[in-house]
Design a protein that fits this description.
Elements: E1 17-18, H1 22-27, E2 31-35, E3 38-43, E4 52-55, E5 61-65, E6 76-79, E7 82-88, E8 91-96, E9 106-107, E10 112-118, H2 122-127, E11 144-149, E12 152-160, E13 163-169, H3 173-185, E14 190-191, H4 194-198
Parallel strand pairs: 1-3, 4-14
Antiparallel strand pairs: 2-3, 4-10, 5-8, 5-9, 6-7, 7-8, 10-13, 11-12, 12-13
Length: 200
Amino acid sequence: MSLAFLSVAAADNNAVARSPMERKAKAAGARFEIRDGWNVAVDYGSEPGPVAWADVSHLRKLELQGDGVPGELGEAKREGDAWICQLTPTRALLIGGDHAAPPDAVDVTTCFAALTIFGPYAREVIARFCALDLRPQVAPPGSFRPGSIARQPGMILVEHTDRFLLLFGWAVGEYMWTVVDDAARSLGGGPVGLGALQHA
């Protein structure tokens, strides 16, 4: 019996990773580019409104384990272009960045889909489907809050005063896009690509 079918074909070396929200992004008019092996939405042909969201599921996510994991529960620390978010006293999630991964890190990139919601109405949008208290005096920039997001387990990182990173299960990506879309449209919101996000 030949096991040739188990071999990875040369063409597969150029396989492109895709977000679980790609279909929703296409329907919304996204233009895509391949970046670092991911098919990412870079533009929707419109400027951000008072609130906008972007699919950032491509961000690298690594779980760090051990007694030496720095940080306090409920907090995130900026390390260059990455965030280190404390999950438990001995576990943390490293989000973003392209530096070498620690040898004991576990890559969980495709376990968590992600959306960045930003703009003056970002808190209002999130409050429509999430009961986590994100008031500035309670959750300043650098806060990390696990909890229920649209009745799904997830986490919210407060990146800036009006900028939030939502992490949730990969399998519910399309559902979460729909929830955010429903909450934001009446406030003049819409999706944006990485280009607009990088200049926000």
